[in-house]
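Re: the request from the purification team.
They wanted to know what the chain is likely to look like in 3D before they choose a buffer screen. I agreed to run a prediction and write the result into the notebook, where they can find it.
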Amino acid sequence: MATPALTVSRLEPSAVLELLKPITWFPPMWALACGVVSSGYDGSLERLPLVIVGVLLAGPLVCGTSQAVNDWFDRHVDAINEPNRPIPSGRIPGRLGLVIAIVWSILSLAVSTFLGIWGVIATVVGLALAWAYSMPPVRLKKNGWYGNAAVGACYEGLPWFTGALVMSAALPGHEILAMAALYSIGAHGIMTLNDFKSIEGDIKLGIRSLPVQLGPDRAARLACIVMALPQFVVILLLAHWGHTVSALLVGLVLIAQIALMSVLVRDPRGRAPWYNATGISLYVTGMMIAAIAIRPDIGLHP
């Protein structure tokens, strides 16, 4: 006999929103905002529409697409780890999850044309990584080493780079490139912590996330190192470039994170969600401090 979850025949609008996971939109939207700030954007109304389009692309569209794609190809994993998710629960029936992912990809590409050729290129790269991360046979997420790197690039580096590029209409300078790259590397650790919630399903289905490969304790320690080291380099670079106040502020943010990390590593599986709600907030705060510091007009100099 079929279970009630599989007999659902009508689509719930709330299920579509849940599929697109609005809570995940914040990191790329914030990273794009960091790019806009670091470009020297002065808040002029003339270029404000570009900012709005960029934020919509980074969050609800491209990131939303990545979530729909991931949920479709992860439906068997979610049936084990999160059976109440829209697809395994039947609230998004049949192949509708795949249809939503395709439609959202097309919509993202259409909207990206408002940002010019560089916006289109960035969107194509982001969508390509989103599909490659989840879709067989590539399925980058099968291995936490390069899967997490792809997500880190999409969540932090690519939006930062795109925001700066679109607003300045020129290739970003070395300071922006360095900040975008370093915070992308740190995001690899964030994604490792995110994988703690699906260890059981990953083991059963052969997904080699880092918590599966290394075990929870070693994976948590590695995640902390990967998050902390790039920020330490950020501090050194800001100080080297003369942004002394900003370097001190990012240093304080990092010290606070390290204090939280010391709690995390005592109980990685139990504390990972807690750290995602606390330590990551500090991480993104440091991103904006760095973005303000490297603005060409009002950097926080001594």
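For the purification team: The CA atoms of residues 146 and 195 lie 14 Å apart.
Please add any questions underneath this entry.
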